[in-house]
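Input record (Table S2, row 426):
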Amino acid sequence: MTLTHNPGDGRGPFGTGFRTGPGTGTVPQTDPYTRSDPFNRPPEHEVAWTDPVTGTRGWLVVHTLVGGLATGGTRMRAGCTRDEVADLARCMATKTAAFGLPVGGAKAGLSLDPRSPGALGVLERFFADLRPWLERSWVTAEDLGVAQSDLDAVFARLGLDQSFHAAMLRSPNPATTLDRVRAGLAVQDGDGLPLGDVIGGYGVAQACLAVAASLGLDPAETTVAIQGIGTMGGGAAWYLHEAGVRVTAIADAAGTLFRPRGLDIPALLAARDHFGEIDRATVPADVEILPRDAVLAAPVDILVPAAVSYSLREESVADVAARVVVEAANSPTTPAAEERLAVRGIPVVPDFVANAGAAAWAWWLLQGQVGTDPQDSFGRLRTEMQGKVAFMMDAWQADRIIPRRSAWGFAAANLTALADREITIP
Ligand SMILES: NC(=O)c1ccc[n+]([C@@H]2O[C@H](COP(=O)([O-])OP(=O)(O)OC[C@H]3O[C@@H](n4cnc5c(N)ncnc54)[C@H](O)[C@@H]3O)[C@@H](O)[C@H]2O)c1
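Output record (nicotinamide-adenine-dinucleotide complex):
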């Protein structure tokens, strides 16, 4: 294992800068994203790791510590790189700061196919070598290719209580805190689903409702298209439908489904398989079946990319018919696409606010700010998400300040306010 400090090069998805592109309008922010983003700096710490048994490479990148603590998931995928982990760590740091959570941002990744034999053994050796971080400073969670149940099993074998062990150290009575947090994690929504699985999508839906309000639209006259209908996109679709919004287009990995008067979201979600793909045999005859990327051009008020990174690229911008983009996936819009959308008058509500619901909820739970009544959790997230999105949309409508830039502003201010604060978990 090698441990290095501050070796980051500061490059990231905004490394090419914020150039002015062709278009009809003007956008006042002409300075590069790299200069505007207060989080675009080298990480505070990083660990590069090589498995002595298989040679698998892995990384822990701690972008920011707040009160000595950082949070961020552990992913496993063949081809994972140090730069990918560093970008995700920075995104986590921005996310926790945007919500004023008393914890910094981190991420870990292993370049390994999670289905390969012995993958859990690699994960266990990785965590064994990272034990000092897990014991004192880093709270991890499931991520791409790593299920929470796998993490829990590995943590148990290593003799660590659970993946939020480091946070428990800040509690005067860890056993009581653990009982309280476990009770909170077991809470279900009204449909019997664990809150932790649905609250991220609920937050995206609240971001969309705030956008609709800023456009002067009632939910019933708002239309939405969603790319990706898994945990995030499916949750967003569910709560938007429940709020009376017409979700007229959705896409999974197999294609786009479109019905201008609104899709039957509960029925389509019920027809999904384990990978979030809808059984086409169940799709009613009046639903148009279109190519996969057609969702990006759907004639709607709000477009929600909720599938993969970099799905909304510069070459697709001319086709976008939505008035606003709300990012549910991580980094679904390339910087060049975001710039061209802004020039076309289409703001992008950034990922690190719109998709932060689950991360924020977990820390509210740890801090005892929400408990076992799901309405407290939904209410808190609704208030915080709608407030932040309304602020960004106001700044966009009044002065054409891109939402990501407004959000960087309040995230940086929150981080400054949290600096050197002693973190205690009740
Ligand atoms: N799950 C979370 O708690 C969470 C939290 C924050 C951010 N995110 C981000 O949200 C995104 C989606 O995560 P998820 O957990 O919902 O994933 P998921 O695996 O549950 O669902 C992915 C969905 O996207 C569809 N899809 C895949 N490729 C597609 C393509 N090219 N075009 C259209 N649809 C496609 C799949 O069919 C599926 O419906 C990821 O970027 C993830 O990092 C997830």
